[in-house]
Request: fold
Amino acid sequence: MNNRFNWSVAGVGINVNQIIFDREFRATSLKLESGQNFLIDEVLEKMCIHLEKYYLMLKNNKYDQIKQSYFEKIFGVNTWMDFESHGELISRFVKGINDSGLLVLRDKNGLLMEVDVKEVKWIY
Reply:
């Protein structure tokens, strides 16, 4: 409200040591990505450290720093990715996220499209 946060709700789900997933979901886990088992308490502690870091940045009005960090970590940013959109396979360059939270994609002709991430399916 008025360019200020009044409240926010965030949910985080991390697959830690899980190795079997339903086929319809493209999911992974820390174990599948690294080949290692993890202690849940250690993962939780590290998550809390990082959440606190960003909470303190938010509390200290470091919005640009938070935004820059977020943009650097967007899946596929600054690369060409394949998507399914309205039943059609398309290839788009991932530009980033706009201030409204929409995914910004560019086609081969330079035309930009802004979509909600629920409007396209990432093919990877």
About this structure: Residues 104 and 114 are 5 Å apart (CA to CA). The helical segments are 30-34, 40-59, 63-72.
